[in-house]
Structures are given as structure tokens and as C-alpha cells.
Amino acid sequence: MSSPGLPPDVEAFMDFIGQNIELSGGLVWNERDRLKSDMMLVRHRWSPSRVSVDAFRSKCEDVGMSPEDVAEVVDWLRRAQAGRQLRPQHIKDFRWHQDPTP
């Protein structure tokens, strides 16, 4: 499902997260760590010039996140965009395989 305003790499990554949410019944620890890890290791993918908070929130809702998970993940995006650290617990070296597109 496509969300206006998101680059293709972020769109595909969030679709992947959504598929895993569907399989596991929610946003579980490994998906949380994958998101945090990519946000930290590939900061330019998540920059404000590429990913707006509103478009990201909409995509999170579209892929089936609960309202609580949407709020938490959107907060991670805001923190990452502000240059703050996110701390994945177990998966610390995950990078989405698609390179960020301009």
C-alpha cells in the first residue's frame, strides 16, 4: 500500500514491517529493533527532508500498527530526526537492504 510523501525505500521497509506485524499479531521486539537499528545506522534515510512525520504516521497505521505502537514509532522518528539516539536491545546492526533514494 502506497503512502503519499514517503520515498520508495521507506515505503518498502514499512510494508515489510507490516507483513511481520500481520504474521506475529503485533509489533514485536525484533521489528522494534529493526526499525530502531535502521533509523540509527542509516540516518539519512529518515531525514526530515525525506520522511515527514505525518506521512510516516499514516503508513504505520496502514500497515496495521496499534495506536500505541504508532505513537511510539513516530516518537522514534522524531528523536532520530533530532539527532538523538535510539537503543535497539538485540538487533543492533540491521539495515534495510534498499539504499535510500533521493
Which structural category do the helix and sheet elements fall into?
Answer: mainly alpha
Low-confidence spans: pLDDT under 50, at least 5 residues?
Answer: none
- Give a quick account of the main beta sheet: strands, pairing sense, barrel closure: none
- Integer average pLDDT: 92
Number of E strands: 0
Radius of gyration: 12 Å
Word description of this protein:
The protein has 102 residues and is mainly alpha-helical. The chain has one domain. It contains four helices and no strands. Helix 3 runs antiparallel to helix 4. It is globular and about 30 Å long. The model has no long low-confidence stretch (mean pLDDT 92).
Summarize the structure.
54% of the residues lie in helices and 0% in strands.
Helix-strand layout with pairing:
Elements: H1 8-24, H2 29-41, H3 53-62, H4 67-81
Q: What are the main properties of this structure?
A:
mainly alpha, 102 residues, globular, single chain
